[in-house]
Predict the 3D structure of the following.
Amino acid sequence: MIPPSQLTPPPLGPGTTPPLLEAVPRRSFLKFSGLGAVGVVLASAGCRINKDEETNTVNVGKHDLAILNYAFALEQLEGAFYEKVTAGFYAGASAMEKDLLTDIRNDEIAHREWFRDVLTLKKVPKLEFDFSSINFTDRRSVLTTARTFEDLGVSAYNGAGQLLALSPFLNHAGKIVSVEARHAATIRNLLSFGSFADSDVADANGLDVVRTPPQVMALADKYFVTKVKVDELPTH
Amino acid sequence: MNLSNLFNEIESVDPEIYDRMDARRGVINRFARVGTRLATAAVPVALGGLFNKAYGQKVSSDVLEVLNFALTLEHLESRFYQTAVGTPGLLPAKDKINVIRDHEVQHVKFLQQTITSAGGTPVAEGKYDFTGKGTFPAVFSDYKQFLQVAQAFEDTGVGAYKGQASELKSSNDILTAALRIHSMEARHAAHIRFIRMVNGYAKIKPWIVGDDNSKGTPFERIYQRESDHRQVVINIEGIGGYNVGNAATSSFDEPLHKDEVMAIVKPFLA
């Protein structure tokens, strides 16, 4: 397990200075030169996605980069949740549970920070979350929430795939979604061994869950203090 | 710089971007309306018909080839689990391997229907040697060996679907169906790994850490890219100032190309 001291970012990290060189487009050009023309343009042409302070809402907008911001928002949610879970484990957490939940937290941090890095210039700001409905001292409360988030994440990436079909990012979304599915199966097995792919997540063809961005955000809405608008995203 | 400027720039790179997206969306919109009126089992048939109508042609031979490649793997998995479930005394009931068996049988049927309705010919089931030419002689009598082979098939399946995703871009519904199978295979892989982990059969996690200690084993090729800690040129080690430990490699699963997959499963083909 990583000591908490190492998880607190040094001055380089988020929250102290802007995480990346936001004002240097050349950096993004270099970063994305391997991604093809669309990637380069997307990375170097946009501007920051600003929060509407009055309504505490960010609008991810349309097109490929917006879909990545939608994923970034979900990874922020998962990351913040597991950071809280691992900051003080629920009563009776076994060594194995602590180890697995710490691994999952690290995966989610990696995803979140990767999106923050990929989206260099055009990304939603740090979002605020409301976890008041979760009892972090209670195993069942923590693990059922984790199950909800992981299954939701799987369904979100499965639904986002076709929206990313024109982008160079489809492959990377694929690399992430199977890790989310591994988390989902693991959390489910911790809750009830053998429930890794119960019929609530597998249809009669053996296909996993899929949801559109508005369906996902409706289910996750109560956890977002900063609301994330996704209704301008393409639907098909 | 604002949003509309961004879109203008995209258009200058790809003038037809809106046309291409609108054309595809129109097709899918029509399907969405049709789809709600159909029973789940009828959906693959409806998909094929829709493609023919919308484009006046069959689903591309490339897409059919990918589907048949997927079917080849699903046949292998389906027969593997059917054999195991049919072997008395091999599987502890609590481990619910039958759930995986059911899914693989369903995937075979689903792919067969989808390929047929899209105008293709589904590949037939092959003949298998699940001992891998003698490497796993007790695959259906020793539960540990069975799990080793099961994990190899599941992780290979995950990598295989991932490797084909971009080949399915021309067809939203088939891409989405493939992604949904892909994440289901990942759930299976995690479950098999979970069983091995809690029983102490292997020093392993539900996710793939580095090369999964596969160096020098028969399954080295499955994990050949998993030690990569760079995603697009971004280093995950220490990303954002965080020490994410093993997540530098475990946070992203890696694709396998078709020829790599076929080489991995070759010893299991009779």
The mean pLDDT of chain B is 85. The two ends of chain B are 61 Å apart (CA to CA).
